[in-house]
Amino acid sequence: MGVFGRIVKVNQKSTLLWWSGQYHTLNFKTKHNIGDIIDSCDNLITKNNSSYNHKSNEGLFSIMKNRFDYIQKTRDFFRNLGFIEVTTPKLKESIIDETNISIMKTPYGYLTPSPEVEIKKLISLGFDNVFELCYAYRDDHKDNLHKKEFLILEWYRAMQQPKDIIRDFIELIKYLNGDSLLKYQGLNIDLDNVSFIKYKDLFLNYANIDIHNIDKHKIKKMLNIEGEIDVLELLDAVFAFEIEKNLGLNNPIVVYDFPKEKATLARIENGYAKRYETYIAGIELSNCYLEETDYKEIKRRFKNTDKLFFDAMKKGIPKMSGIAVGLDRLIMILENLEKVDCF
Fold first, then answer.
1. Residue 204 falls inside a structural domain
2. Of the candidates 10, 173, 263, 336, which lies 20 to 30 Å from 327 by C-alpha distance?
3. Residues 6+ apart with CB under 8 A from 188
């Protein structure tokens, strides 16, 4: 067939086509219309039946192409480190009930909000240093940072600490960014300088609140909140409105030592959940755990609704750390976009 593509410009003596990220010039004036797809002999392949804005489509094409490149490079990054890529089920008959995660249920079962539980079943069989890049599903309110279906990246290392996993994450960002200086929405973020700060210290530094001595009435008045609300919900509100926007404006910030009630599948030590959240440009990008591996403790926290998971935990998994990364958000930052639903 030779050259073919979509007509984007027509002059008296030439026709400009666009296809697969490239422009092609035909040395004649086409008899067809802007937006139609033709070949180099001016044969109509597909007629465009809607309005066509080439510049808009070209911009979206570029974003999507880069998105696919980031996905491929992410896989290359982990394979070069010797990780095994795994795939796990996304539609399940039963699911564990994690705090603050809104599950999506279909007539045929539950859509998984994360591959974590399924990956741990594989780890109980002897898999080690594994990653999965897939879609996950949560019934979140849609906004600039949330979609009900989104790309998630998770990886796990046996006998490693959260700081080792976070080091992986920062190296991944530098690899995808091509530089240790990340530029986003006017910010210059130094990826070589990672700061760790305790959850309780954030509340003291940014809101003058001692989380161990809460004055609920004062905080509700400060945030203009009415009605009953428990302490954890109140802290979440303060974090969302007063703290989060300040994190990671100059360099990545890792928040750790969360209240034990926020542990979910993380280990609890010295009264704190060993989870580590990474922030860049005021946006949460990842959630890392020092994983709880004790079967009895997991059994205590969750109802026995996923028998295969509890069976796997009973067999035992090694001490390990793992992380979940919102890949849509990371790509949004790498592409200097303001919302995740651009792709």
1. no
2. 263
3. 181, 182, 250
Cα–Cα distance, 308 to 96 (Å, whole number): 11
Closest C-alpha to 115, from 330, 341, 324: 324
Looking up residue 162, the CATH number of its domain turns out to be 3.30.930.10
Burial class (CB in 10 A: 0-12, 13-18, 19+), 51: exposed
Amino acid at 234: L
Please indicate, yes or no, whether residues 8 and 77 belong to a single structural domain of this protein: no
**331 membership: H or E segment, kind and range:** helix 327-334
CB 180 within 8 A of CB 190: yes
Q: Give the whole-angstrom CA distance, residue 101 versus residue 8.
A: 45
pLDDT digit string, tens, across residues 160-196: 999 999 999 999 999 999 999 999 999 999 999 999 9
φ/ψ of residue 200, rounded to 5: -65, -30
In Å, what is the CA distance from 315 to each residue of 31, 121, 250, 261?
71, 10, 44, 26
DSSP 8-state code for residue 291: B
Give yes or no: residues 141 and 185 share one domain.
yes
Q: Is 188 left (phi over 0), alpha (psi -120 to 50) or beta?
A: beta
Give the separation between CA 24 and CA 16, rounded to whole angstroms.
Answer: 6
**Could you tell me if 37 and 24 are in contact, meaning their C-beta atoms sit under 8 angstroms apart?**
no
Rounded Cα gap, residues 61 and 184, in angstroms: 21
Q: Which residues, in sequence order, are bridge partners of residue 7? A: 17
Same domain for 11 and 73? no
Whichever domain contains 26, its CATH number is: 2.30.30
Q: How far apart (Å, rounded) are the C-alpha atoms in residues 268 and 291? A: 9
pTM of the model: 0.92
Q: How confident is the model at residue 291 (pLDDT cuts 50, 70, 90)?
A: very high
Question: Tokens 């580590």 label which residue?
Answer: 276
- Mind listing the pLDDT tens digit for each residue in 216-227? 888 888 888 888
H or E element: which one contains 279?
A: strand 272-280
Q: Which of 52, 67, 84 is the last residue of a domain?
A: 52
